[in-house]
Amino acid sequence: MPSRTNSDMEIPPGLETTKRKVAHSDEHGFSDDLDQVRVPNVIVMVGLPARGKTYISKKLCRYLKWTGFKTKVFNVGEYRRTDANAADAIHGANASFFSPDNAEALKVRTESARRAMEDMADYLNSGTGSVAIFDATNTTKDRRSIIIDFCKKKRLRCFFIESVCDDPAIIDSNVTDVKVNSPDYKGLMTAEQAKEDFMNRIENYKRQYEPLEESEHESLSFIKVINAGRSFKVHQVRGHVQSRVVYFLMNIHLLPRSIYLTRHGQSEYNAMGRLGGDSPLTEDGRKYAAALADFFEEEEVPGLRVWCSQKVRAAQTAQHLKPDFHTEYWKALDELDAGICEGLTYEDIQQRYPKQADDRATDKYHYRYPSGESYEDVVSRLEPVIMELERQANVLVVSHQAVLRCVLAYFYDRPLSELPYIDIPLHSLVKLTPRAYHCDSTIYALDLDTQEWTETSAQLPLCDSPRD
Ligand code: F6P
């Protein structure tokens, strides 16, 4: 099958030659040099409470997983609250637990960090994952020095992300929207009491906080994200993963907005069950295009931009939208190229190329059509689109089934194995609204006869068989 294997997914495209060289460097696949390509990465969060560390960790994890790096977040707060420490979990509900003078609590916190670090090293050194995100405050030089030594011993490359924020509005909204719902407070106090306690917790951390400094360690690699991305300081970035992380962090924003996704209306090829091609819309497809324009006329989305593929069926679907939406046509949004199977039906493929049909059924994500693309290829070409979506406010994307599956898997945080099976019916529109730790999803389905939309709050489910 013309595809890459799972383990290859950890290697950035184009670096296979380097990988082969590295694989012979010693029995573990690593040499002494932590500048090798294949060294697993630990990303260490730094910052006072309520500075968005968990937000960054989760978002970064989702992005890295989508790009093919097996990534996991290790949240030390969760370790503190696990069964082993059950008796201490409740202490998190009192700011005094986080006082630098509380020696007993410090032991519990240090032990939780140690357990998280051990699990992280197992995850990386067993080959299960290639990136671990260590989500804790790590606000002292001592704590960071322990982490650096640990990573060195375990042959892991270490990168720090410090979130620095002195904007009271950002801190207040983080505490009010996220922290008062922390499991530390659940069922124990009111939101006002939780907020007051959390502010005291921050004060306790401030007493011992030592911001990252270049001079702190001879080979410190880090990025400081200042006031949720208003400015940055980047120091000694090493390797592909770290540079990707920096690129990502410099593009994301916190402003409220929505992303709308739709397939084109029904095309002539859709009506015949044929794949791909560049056919125009059918009568039903044209009805959908008209209804879509009406939808956005009523919805009045401020500053909406439209991104459309370069295929005729997509352009026709977008053609009645208001000209002030400034439609842009992206080649990257064109449908997955089915190569020698373009224009065939699924039955034709089964008859003419049964081996291809079987291979595709075995591993749909990695399967590449001869002279065409795989889903993995589409994810790669969509990365600039995702990055631009992260930078923008309200956007409507008019594209195709396979492409929108890739985009949705990113926002829904679905595993790559599920991605090719997300069920995206024709004549429906998905509205995604990113929240702190997840993305709200609303589906609007059009009844072509009545021209009425039905609205459901849910993620699109997985389908068993392909749709045309
Ligand atoms: O059938 C419509 C279509 O957009 C084709 O052009 C494309 O090849 C196919 O869907 C992708 O879906 P699947 O990967 O399930 O075959």
From TrEMBL:
Alphabetical UniProt keywords: ATP-binding, Coiled coil, Hydrolase, Nucleotide-binding
Basic and acidic residues composition bias: residue spans: 17-29
Coiled-coil intervals: 188-215
Superkingdom of this protein's organism: Eukaryota
GO-annotated biological processes: fructose 2,6-bisphosphate metabolic process; fructose metabolic process
CDD domains assigned: HP_PGM_like (cd07067)
Binding site for substrate: 263-270, 313
Enzyme active site: 264, 335
Record domain 6-phosphofructo-2-kinase: where: 40-256
Annotated region described as Disordered, given as residue ranges: 1-29
Database matches in InterPro entries: 6Pfruct_kin, 6Phosfructo_kin, His_Pase_superF_clade-1, His_PPase_superfam, P-loop_NTPase, PG/BPGM_mutase_AS
SMART domains: PGAM
Single annotated GO MF: ATP binding
Entry similarity comment: In the C-terminal section; belongs to the phosphoglycerate mutase family.
Protein name: 6-phosphofructo-2-kinase domain-containing protein
Species whose genome carries this gene: Caenorhabditis briggsae
Lineage: Eukaryota, Metazoa, Ecdysozoa, Nematoda, Chromadorea
